[in-house]
Amino acid sequence: MTSEKKAPIDVAVGILMKENGDVLLAQRPAGKPYEGYWEFPGGKVETGETVEEALKREFMEELGITVLNKDPWCCVEHVYPHAHVRLHFFIIRRWAGYPQSRESQSFGWQGAIHVEPLLPATIPLIRWLDALRYPR
Ligand SMILES: Nc1nc2c([nH]c(=O)n2[C@@H]2O[C@H](COP(=O)(O)OP(=O)(O)OP(=O)(O)O)[C@@H](O)[C@H]2O)c(=O)[nH]1
């Protein structure tokens, strides 16, 4: 038996946020693990890329959006049956273009989050996100 531990897979995730606090969620396409679950757009960091570069690439590939400004927000690790991921979340308040579904994903702007199911690692973030976008 081996006790070898695999390094986590880095994933760049972006939360597009409008001035009124609405955020963009996307539905995972058919054929991927957790197909049909809702997530914030993003994807795995490729070899030789920084997390920021991966974020920009994924937003262009998935949504046709140019990221103009991004604030690192939080980093969360989660062990799924299919992978151990390290999610690097960014808040994106400035971008160019309108989201288009380039990979046949459904997506939508959400104030209070009404879509489900959400990816398990993303669920706890919603409370933190609400504290950020709706400060008392
Ligand atoms: N984009 C995104 N991924 C998330 C979130 N939460 C979360 O657990 N993940 C996990 O992060 C990983 C992202 O991988 P992915 O398969 O979507 O990445 P990718 O687009 O580069 O896919 P591919 O290159 O395998 O086709 C998945 O294991 C997914 O379950 C989230 O909110 N957004």
From TrEMBL:
<dbReference type="InterPro" id="IPR015797">
    <property type="entry name" value="NUDIX_hydrolase-like_dom_sf"/>
</dbReference>
<keyword id="KW-0479">Metal-binding</keyword>
<keyword id="KW-0227">DNA damage</keyword>
<dbReference type="Pfam" id="PF00293">
    <property type="entry name" value="NUDIX"/>
</dbReference>
<dbReference type="InterPro" id="IPR047127">
    <property type="entry name" value="MutT-like"/>
</dbReference>
<dbReference type="InterPro" id="IPR003561">
    <property type="entry name" value="Mutator_MutT"/>
</dbReference>
<comment type="similarity">
    <text>Belongs to the Nudix hydrolase family.</text>
</comment>
<protein>
    <recommendedName>
        <fullName>8-oxo-dGTP diphosphatase</fullName>
        <ecNumber>3.6.1.55</ecNumber>
    </recommendedName>
</protein>
<feature type="domain" description="Nudix hydrolase">
    <location>
        <begin position="8"/>
        <end position="132"/>
    </location>
</feature>
<dbReference type="InterPro" id="IPR000086">
    <property type="entry name" value="NUDIX_hydrolase_dom"/>
</dbReference>
<dbReference type="InterPro" id="IPR020084">
    <property type="entry name" value="NUDIX_hydrolase_CS"/>
</dbReference>
<dbReference type="InterPro" id="IPR020476">
    <property type="entry name" value="Nudix_hydrolase"/>
</dbReference>
<keyword id="KW-0234">DNA repair</keyword>
<keyword id="KW-0235">DNA replication</keyword>
<keyword id="KW-0515">Mutator protein</keyword>
<keyword id="KW-0378">Hydrolase</keyword>
<keyword id="KW-0460">Magnesium</keyword>
